[in-house]
UniProtKB/TrEMBL annotation:
It comes from Methanobacterium lacus (strain AL-21). The chain crosses the membrane at residues 44-69, 81-104. Keywords: Coiled coil, Membrane, Transmembrane, Transmembrane helix. Residues 18-45 form a coiled coil. The keyword Transmembrane applies. The lineage of its organism: Archaea, Methanobacteriati, Methanobacteriota, Methanomada group, Methanobacteria. InterPro entries: Zinc_ribbon_dom. It comes from the Archaea. Residues 3-25 form the Zinc-ribbon domain. Pfam families: Zn_Ribbon_1. This is Zinc-ribbon domain-containing protein.
Amino acid sequence: MVYCPVCGTENPKDVKECKNCHANLDNILNNIKSEESEYNLLKISGYVFIILGLFSLGTLSIVGLILGYKTYQQNNSNAKTHGIIIVVLNIVVILFWIWTLFLVPQWWQSTSLNQSIPRFYR
Ligand SMILES: [Zn+2]
């Protein structure tokens, strides 16, 4: 059974148009399918870019953020959840690289500076 998206009438699964309002169900169902596959593509790429971000010093996470945001905007019941997860994980990757590239060298420098600081402060 297929519900007509225009008038809500129940139709047999393989009809081409709604028996009540004659809306073209074939087109409507194809649109739903292509929206679904666009959503899946965005969602999967969003997750892939989390991993790519890890291997690219976080630069590709920017793309992942955009994909996550676009996933969030999709018309799908799980879109918001997946969108938020993708955005948050991409931000985590970016923060991880900022931490690794900026804070660890600073910490490393400060520990090597420790050698010249009087014993009292160590
Ligand atoms: Zn209808």
